[in-house]
User: Fold Bifunctional diguanylate cyclase/phosphodiesterase from Arthrobacter methylotrophus.
Amino acid sequence: AKAEHRSSVKVFEPALLYARRLQGLMISELREAIRTDQLVLHFQPVVELKSGRVEGAEALVRWNHPDRGLLMPDAFIPLAEETGIIIDLGYWVLRQAMRQLRLWQDGPGVDENFSMRVNISTTELQSLELIEHVREVLAETGVEASRLVIELTESMAVNGSDIDRYSLTGLRRLGIRLEIDDFGTGYSSISYLRSLPVNVVKIDRSLIQGLGTDDKEREFVAAVLQLIHACGMQAVAEGIETAEQAAELGRLGCASGQGYHFGRPMPPEQFAELLRGT
Ligand code: C2E
Ligand code: CA
Ligand code: CA
Ligand code: CA
Assistant:
């Protein structure tokens, strides 16, 4: 059995080494990408469902790779998380998003509470630098803390480790808002939601998909909205792709929404046009 094991290792070794080498290459490329601004942010509108007004944007990172074209986050965020590069990447995203917000926030026709949503990952939440980075970028750009919404996933918020709690309360103390992303895909207990220092809950796309076609789905989303409101939190729905879904969510009392129906994530120039109403 031992010999067999050894020979199987031999067979797979070259492939494994090749994969490692590729990964190593990508790691240094990604570091370089952050240094040389190959990363870009696209912005997706967040809309007030009652009025249809654009109330904010979510910043979503892409990598404009010199050989491979525009890479979506799924192609590099996991690697950035595994290697810790996400700390620098997240810092870059935050600074870039706040600079953009600064440019837009006082423009004509822009909602006076126009806000920017930025995603963070577990590694960032667990880093002691996060609060310092947020404070620094807000000071540097002059953006009011209340305009920044940090999105974290349910499992991150629910983890409950001391350092996570410390980060969450520290961020709240700065005056920024916290949002649970992808709500409904995790496994947090209902009572736990109440105890979180969170202001907004974003209902996951998977719960929105069946809206407009299925009565049971509507009942379910209605119950989720009631739960969120009972916790004293605000609701946002993501993944709205049809007018029916938007209308249904509005009827159910969901304040805000986001999805292809209102606009895909787009480069800043295009988002500026959207804001100007052109
Ligand atoms: P997310 O935060 O849940 O972002 C929403 C994703 O759904 C985005 O994909 C967006 O393009 C897509 N989407 C928006 N509206 C619709 C819709 O109506 N229908 C459908 N089918 N999809 C919609 P994207 O940009 O590929 O981002 C994927 C994930 O990558 C994000 O999921 C987020 O978890 C992560 N990510 C993106 N930017 C960053 C970042 O700057 N930092 C970190 N840590 N993670 C990021
Ligand atoms: Ca998000
Ligand atoms: Ca989401
Ligand atoms: Ca998601």
In short: The chain is about 50% helix and 20% strand. Residues 183 and 203 are 5 Å apart (CA to CA).
